[in-house]
Amino acid sequence: MNTKAFIFDLDGVIVDTAKYHYLAWQKIANALNIDFTHEHNELLKGVSRVRSLDIILELGNIQASQEDKDKWLIQKNEDYLTYLVDMDESEILPGVLPILQFLKEKKQAIALGSASKNARPILEKTGIISYFDVIVDGNDVTNAKPDPEVFLKAARLLNISPEDAIVFEDSVAGVQAANIGKMTSVGIGSKTVLHEAKYIFEDFTFIDQNFIESLITK
Predict the structure, then answer these.
(1) Which residues are tagged catalytic?
(2) pTM for the whole thing?
């Protein structure tokens, strides 16, 4: 049987922690008198923590010292982590677990490719870390998506060529990273937003085993 690399983003793909990022960033924005909406939060999808702060400061036309930026980045992460304390398997998005189980049954290689620096504790709290053969997160890379570094590193660690890798992403930057890396991109979310992906599904409940089989045997 063919072995492919199935690489998953974390936030918005496996778990819905985007809502917690939003609350933590909104707290920072409010303290700086910046109007930060859900629409603005879409700009932060798939983006590093440092770049996310820069985007928020740009929204408020605020210039800040590196010292202040470092302080706000620490504060944001501490606030975000407080929301994760009570995470459990109920936070896993619908349809994800059956796909992970099916991939394991088919002896496929599974990796996480996420900008999050909290990926490992999140996978542990939700009880699914054992499904992943490789975890590459924000602690392991220097370039943010749409740079394909995080996905290329995951494929390399799995000893599988990029052309044999399938990436599940919910952000434009993530889909672009997969495409730049010569991987098969599967968008999870809006067709309007993720139109650059090769395949697009509203969520994992729309992905059946036949589709996964077709990716394995392709």
Answers:
(1) 9, 11
(2) 0.87
